[in-house]
Amino acid sequence: MIHKESPPLKSLCPSSQNDYPLLPISNHRQYPAVLHYRPTYQPANQPITRSVPSDPGANVIDHVIWSGLALFAPFAGRGKSFALILRHFQVGGSELEKALTRGAVVVVARSRVWKPSHEAEEMYVVIPDELKRDGPVNGTDQRPLARIQIIHGNFLSRVTRFMDIHGRIDLPEGYHFCIPQVTFRHIFPFRNPNNTRIKLARSKGWLKMFVALFQVIYAVITLYRTRGDQLALFGYAAFGLSVFPYAFMSMAYLICTGFVGEYSHLYLLQTAIMAEAMARKPGCISGAIGDFERREPGAKDEQVASSVDDAAADENAGGAASSGGQNGPPDIFTHAKISLRRETPSHGQPIDILKIQVDGRKPMEFTYLPPEDKFQSPEITFKISCIADQHRLPDAASSVVSDRAKLMNAKLMRFLQYVIIPLALVSPYLLIYLLTRFEARSSTVTQRAWMMAWIGSGQLAFLIHFMVAMANPGLCPTAISNPWGMLILPIIGVILVVIGLHGFIIVGKMLMQFGTCSAVP
């Protein structure tokens, strides 16, 4: 039998510019450059899809969505980690404040179907200007139609029934849970000594941190192996370069987990609204944390201009929740007693009578329009905050921060915003330039286009998730209720996944084209 002479290895395998001798080796050394991202290939590398901070109280579906997005768009995880680190240093050092910035704190809020109780309750309400001018309304023959409008600020996100909250909680009708934003620290006494001493359970994720560190080291080794033949053949489309987005994601996750940590459950904060809900039946809450300050209003506290958004802009401004509009003056909240009673006329259906008594004035009565009545228009509309009844900034609010602490936080914020974030956006292209000088070599236009599209889409994912996490750090995908958010965010997610999936395919084809040879210096 005559054996044909095999062609020399050099004709089968690409050689480097240094013309190193080439030896045939097993292909398993090259596969990890692309396949170690896929959790189905190597069990030891399964946590790669978890190198993104989990949302407090999130369910399994949310974890799967985040993990899948991080697999195909790793810069999304890096953007979220950067935002959480940035928010972590925006507040004081107490664990309760840190949990607030992480989105791990929930409060009881009045819902849109909230109704006054049959027992008189004290709260702050916006009295319409026409009642201030015309005086109180009395008598059964001239009761105007009135409705109560619950003011919902843009700093709240609804908690769904799929999210886990610490403790046992049964809310009466008219109340639900919301995750407040950082501006909530202006109406809750986080600096109260009882609150600063609170310790909350949060996981540092030491095992995840170790895995993330291993992934960073593994990615550096893979990038080192990319030198030589691979860069000489594919240029800046080399498949080994696809590892660095995951290295950056793992590094950001490593830092985020070390500083911020992760919360497995949401923590319920005790507030005046929670006490109001507990007074109603069947209200039952156990496991709440925090100590809120209550102060009986005096004659000088009958009225107050209040706005959480104004308090966020002005550290010295105090007050309760939500103004009437960001383009106009803040609403004037007035202390009043509100109750609801039912009357049954001799002829006709039973009607509800809304009774409002402002301090020092005669009671006012109105025919109450329930929230579900969409067919009648009210003549009078009263506004009530959904999360606060406070008329002033609490004495121990977190806005009382030393000038030195404010200066240090401001410097840190500027460093993160103007140095770290731009560097994170530029670093992928800088790394590619240093390794390849953006030379095309033998790569095709399709290979270069999809590889750069993969990186470009990752930068878009970085910005989107950075902004979303800065605005709402505890937002779970299954908790999105805004119609535009439910439409736009899934479309963006699908686009990112499709680009990432096609990037995997291109990398796989290049891996097969590269063959089973490697340069050995």
Automatic annotation (TrEMBL):
This is Uncharacterized protein. The lineage of its organism: Eukaryota, Fungi, Dikarya, Basidiomycota, Agaricomycotina. It comes from Jaapia argillacea MUCL 33604. The chain crosses the membrane at residues 206-224, 236-260, 415-436, 448-472, 484-506. Keywords: Membrane, Transmembrane, Transmembrane helix.
